[in-house]
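User: Predict the complex with magnesium ion.
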Amino acid sequence: MSRLTTLLFDVDGTLADTEEIHRQSFNKAFRQADLDWEWSQALYGELLAVTGGKERIKHYLATHRANFVPPLNLDEYVAGLHAAKTDIYTRSMAAGELPLRPGVLRLLEAAREAGLRLGIATTTTPANVTALLQHSISTDALGWFDVIAAGSVVPAKKPAPDIYRFAMQAMDVSADECLAFEDSENGLRSARGAGLETLITVNEYTKDHDFIDAAMVVDTLGEPDAPMQVLAGMTCDQPCIDIDCLYRLHAAARSGEG
Ligand code: XBP
Ligand code: MG
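Assistant: Here is the predicted structure with magnesium ion placed in the model:
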């Protein structure tokens, strides 16, 4: 059995609770385009079943705006809307300090200290990842990750396994030496489809998702003074997910005892 060498992180909902900023950015882009579309939190929770902002807008048009006729061809029109949304999103990240989720910075730093490699596998647009890492961690944080696999770099987005396969190929690692960190059912299916054992941290948008074949499900990665709550899978006697816990989780899951 391979030893754990690599941690692969999803971004939205996992590194930080970004989806609320995405939702607000979509709505601002719609208003900027003189559209009366408004994605409530409840509707956005449903639309998140479709990964990728452009794909999500097209899905919304097909399911909620069947009579809408785009002024240009649909792909061009949606691409323009999404580019405006991404600009709004990255500006709002630069303006405000969005905190990483509990335990994320602590675990990233501990992983680097332990010599574990870090990668990112996300559906979101690369510019959004850059904005988050630079403004929520530091300007050199991009360099913490051996690969940042994001958005349309692969033909099929999550729940397809493509983005995780792309990241592992770029890092020249095999699935049995990795752990994936995700927040959603689509993300879990993508990671599991690529053969990865997966740790789930839930959030308001994903807490009711099906995480049946996750190695472990927690509310957050926790902090020593803000204990995590283990919701499913392997138990851990520590108040938060630390490197030893990851080694144990990886070994247990790979041996089928998880
Ligand atoms: C989450 C997504 C993304 C974001 C919006 O990605 O599905 O589409 O919701 O970002 P992940 P874009 O959880 O894989 O990080 O508008 O740039 O797609
Ligand atoms: Mg996510």
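The chain has nine helices and seven strands.
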